[in-house]
Every structure is written in structure tokens, then in C-alpha cells.
Amino acid sequence: MSLETLGWQGLVILAVFGLSLLIATYCTYAERVIAAFLQDRVGPDRAGPYGLLQPLADAVKMFTKEEFFPGGANKALFIFGPCLAMVTALMSSAVIPFGNKLTFGDTIVWLQGIEINVGMLYVFGIVSLGVYGLMIGGWASNNKFSLLGAVRAASQNISYELAMGLALIAVLMMSGTLSLREITLQQSVAGEWHFWNIVKQPLGFIIFCTCAFAETNRTPFDLPECEAELIGGYHTEYSSMKLGLYLFSEYINIFVASAVMSVLYFGGFNFPFQYELREWLISNQGVGTDMAQNIITGLGTVALFGKIFAFIFFFMWVRWTLPRFRYDQLMRLGWSILIPLAIFNILLTGGLITFGVIK
Known about the structure:
mainly alpha, two-stranded antiparallel ribbon, 13 helices, about 0% strand
């Protein structure tokens, strides 16, 4: 790889991290606007036009609030917990393909931070590390409510990662690769939506999506921070920007989960009639091959972010619509329903592949 290409990829990595932070920041604004709409009330409208500067006001508040360390807390781990949660959330976005390739003469730039042939395994590994940030923060707080929230978070993540991994196996059986870029490109046949994995794996998608809610600690799976029982859960004792890191990491995880579901099941950066549009640009508009491909790549990136934002809206819609599970209901759903369904989905997928129904 040339130095020029390395420089371009470095810019892509910085752009991915910057976009992750920006989207997470404005997810807090979207959460309030959507909640206000669903509850028929006025949302944020003071900081800037239509309240668009509210996230910046929140950031200033977080940075200027008093730092607080509870008595008996392990200060080093108390600081390390939210930092680990934030770093792992950002790292998981590095392997997501946000677009196809851009061609500038002899230089080819992929709109992806890094490409590794075990990209999905990388995401699972980093997401699994994220729960340590919650566990460490809850334990280091020297607070029984924080520790209970941390234990809930750990057991919940372990329980639902099993079903999520089993749902993913069915996709891997069809694709034969762990590379997120390859999985996306395999869904680009003729650019049509009926080649997307959601058509072949509807049950797997439902299982994966349900587990994504649990992995991000979102309602109705927000037991680790249940205010009615645990005050605030694992971040009860946190204030200032350390609390902000926990809250921001949750929204980054929502963004990453939405991106992964879009890539695995909804074609990623593919969109209907993309190849017909490319040929029309070349044949009827006199656009060069590389330029036409760059235009399609740009439109594909826009399509992917449209899918991501639709999933983010779905996350927020569910939060303000459904009540919270009891803890025994949460565990029963994970162990007694989702895992058996995921195993059945693997067997069904294997049978359909064997008899040539799906490929």
C-alpha cells in the first residue's frame, strides 16, 4: 500500500470516528425530539433554532460540572471504567464499510476505516470488551446499587451475545466469510433488494435485532440502569464528563448496532437499480467509468446512512413505546426463547442450503 493510499485511509478513519461522535451527540437531540413528538409535548427549543444547539449546551454542562469521587471508591478504576466503555464503542465502528470504493486516477480509497477478513469477529470481540467498562465502573463506585447494575449488565450481555452469535452463524453459512465488506458486496447482485439477507434470514434478523436492544441496554432491556430499583445503575455515582462518556458510549453503540444490522441484513451501501443508474450515467450522460462509480459510491453511502438513521429512530421509538421487562422475563426471553430459535434458524438455513433453496 502506497503512502498516498495510507494517507487517504487515515483520513477515512478520522472521518469515521468524527462521524460516530457527531451522530452520538445529535442522537441525544433526536431522542428528545422523538420523545416529545410521541408524548405530544414541546421538545428542546431554547438552545439555538429549534433547539439544534442543545447537544452543545449539554456538552458544556458535562465538562463544567463538579468532579465527584465517592468515599471508598477505587479512583483509578472509577476513571478507567467510562473511558473503556467509550474507547470500545468507537473502536467497533472501524471495520464497518460505509461505502464502496472511490477511484482517483491510480488511487483507490475504500470508505472503510480498516478491512480485515474477520471483521464481524472483531466487532463481537470489541463489543464484549465494552461490558467490562460497565462492570469496572459499577464495582469501583463502592455502591451496592452500582454493583447490582453492573452485575445485571454483565449477565445480560453474556446471555444475549449467545443468541446474537447464533443468529450471525446463519448469515455466515450463506456468505462463507466474516468480512463485512464481502458480506455487503455479496448482496449487490443486480443491486436489487430481494438479494439482501433480510429476505433469506427474516427470523435471524428478528433475533439479532432483539439482541441488539439488549446489548445496548435500551428499553425494554434497560435493567442495568433501572431507576425504579437501582437509582441509576452502574453510573449512579458518576458526574461530570465521566457520566457523559457512559451516556455517549450508549449512543455510539446504537449507531454501530444500526450500521451492523444494515450491513448484514439490508445490503449495506447497496441500493435498488444502482447498476442500471451507473450504465445510464456512462451511456447517456457521457460520464467516465471512474466518475460514474464514484457517484454510485456516494449515493450508496447516503443510502446506508438512511438505513442507519431508520434503525436509530426505531431504537428510540421502542424506548418511548414499550415498558421495561422484569429481570426474570429478560433472562427467560434470552435463554428459553431466543437461543432455541437461533439454533432452529441454523438448522433451517443448513437444510435450505443443502437442498439449494438459498445460496
